[in-house]
Amino acid sequence: xxxxxxxxxxxxxxxxxxxxxxxxxxxxxxxxxxxxxxxxxxxxxxxxxxxxxxxxxxxxxxxxxxxxxxxxxxxxxxxxxxxxxxxxxxxxxxxxxxxxxxxxxxxxxxxxxxxxxxxxxxxxxxxxxxxxxxxxxxxxxxxxxxxxxxxxxxxxxxxxxxxxxxxxxxxxxxxxxxxxxxxxxxxxxxxxxxxxxxxxxxxxxxxxxxxxxxxxxxx
Length: 219
Prior knowledge:
Layout: E1 13-17, H1 24-36, E2 41-44, H2 49-56, E3 62-67, H3 76-88, E4 93-97, H4 100-104, H5 108-122, E5 126-130, H6 138-150, E6 155-157, H7 169-179, E7 184-188, H8 194-203, E8 207-210, H9 213-218
Helix pairs in contact: 1-2, 3-5, 6-7
C-alpha cells in the first residue's frame, strides 16, 4: 500500500517505548506525543498498559503491548495469561513473539497452536506475530509468515528491536508477497527517519513500529 498524502504518515506509526527502564513519565510523554502528532498507536510493555489507557481512553489512539517479549521462549500458557491481563487492562493490540526455537526445530503445529491460543485470549483484538527476521533465511521467513496466516493472525511483524538486525525492505517485500491481503505487515527495528519509513511502506508495510514516531511523522 503506497503512501499517499490522503493517508497521513502518522496513521501508520506505532509510537514505541519498550525500554526496560521506561518510567511512568516516559509513558506519559509517549502518549502525549501520540496525541499531538496523531499517531496510530502506542506500543509499550505490559506493566504500562493501564497507565496508557488512563491517558488515551478518550482518544482514537490504539494501545499495543508485547507478549513473550523479547525472546518468545516463555511457555504458551504464560503468553496466554499475559494476553488476558493486557486485554483486561485496556490493550487493543497484542504483539507476540513467535517461539523461535520451536520454529527452528520444525515444530510448526506448536507455532500455529500458540498463535491461535493468543488470538483466542485476545478476544477480537489485533494480534501481530513477531518473527524476528534477523535470525532467519528468506525461506524461513516465508514459512513463518505462512504459519501466521494459517493461524489467522492479523499481522506479521519483522523484529523486536532487541534481536539481530531490524526491518529491511527486502524482508518486508517478501512478507507482503507471502501474506498477500490476508494479513498486515508491520516493519519494526531500526526505522528512525521518514525516508526509511516510506521505503518500508512502499515495500508493503501497513504499520511502522518505531521510537522515532515524532521525527518521522513531523517530516
